[in-house]
Specification:
- It is a single chain.
- The chain is α/β, with parallel strands linked by helices.
- The chain has a single domain, classed as Vaccinia Virus protein VP39 (Rossmann fold, 3-Layer(aba) Sandwich), CATH 3.40.50.150.
- It has a 7-stranded mixed beta sheet, with helices on both faces.
- The longest helix has 14 residues.
- The radius of gyration is 17 Å and the shape is globular.
- It catalyses: guanosine(46) in tRNA + S-adenosyl-L-methionine = N(7)-methylguanosine(46) in tRNA + S-adenosyl-L-homocysteine.
Length: about 220
């Protein structure tokens, strides 16, 4: 998600250390201490302006959430929502989603959300897709055994690629939706992009994919 540069965004993040983790490397393997409980931890990679992750945190106080976003202006908009909602079970990381093993220990995360990721449609850019094998290897490392990725997109090409990528990696496709908003799925929390595209009548694709349990 690209937005205009927001003056003072970096200073906004620095001013709220209770929500924005300045030293995520120091919390690797210790996120339960950061949250002050042993609740499951779920993360969204590329959270954009934060509508989804703040909505999830508000709806599920029994789960801890971490939003990951690279763009400082974008994460500052997510911080606005978090400050307004005062959610103790949500933390924000201004880091690169390809380097998650620097911030999370093996099996520390329970679930990952990928919502409306950049499709990187050109073949030469395949490795940049968040559902490509190189990213899945990182995700599998930080996820608990048999952990899941929940993925939503409006891009049919990326969705088809992702289904294939998950399957080739040995993951199990738990459920697949080819038009989420015309299904009986309950509890859906929309992202900003999802609201925009669904209003135009575009189908929203969703899949829940599970990694194999290599401990068995």
């Amino acid at each position: 998600m690209r937005v205009r540069n927001r003056p003072g965004a970096a200073e906004m993040l620095a001013a709220r250390p209770e929500y924005v983790v300045a030293d995520p490397e120091a919390w690797k393997g210790r996120w339960t201490e950061r949250f002050g409980n042993n609740h499951p931890i779920q993360i969204e990679i590329g959270m954009g302006k934060g509508q989804f992750i703040t909505g999830m945190a508000a709806a599920h106080p029994e789960i801890n959430y971490i939003g990951v976003e690279m763009q400082v202006s974008v994460i500052s908009l997510a911080l606005d929502k978090l400050v307004e909602a005062e959610l103790p079970n949500l933390q924000l990381l201004h880091v690169d989603g390809s380097e998650l093993t620097n911030y999370f220990a093996d099996s520390e995360i329970d679930q990952i959300y990928l919502n409306f990721s950049d499709p990187w449609p050109k073949k030469k850019h395949e490795k940049r897709r968040l559902t490509s094998p190189n990213f899945l290897a990182v995700d599998e490392e930080i996820l608990r055994p048999a952990g899941e990725i929940h993925f939503k997109t409006d891009n049919q090409g990326l969705f088809e690629y992702s289904l294939s990528s998950f399957s080739k990696y040995g993951m199990t496709l738990q459920q697949v939706w080819l038009n989420l908003h015309e299904s009986n799925y309950e509890g859906n929390i929309m992202t900003e992009y999802e609201e925009k595209f669904s209003k135009k009548g575009q189908p929203i694709y969703r899949v829940e994919a599970r990694f194999p349990d290599k401990t068995k």
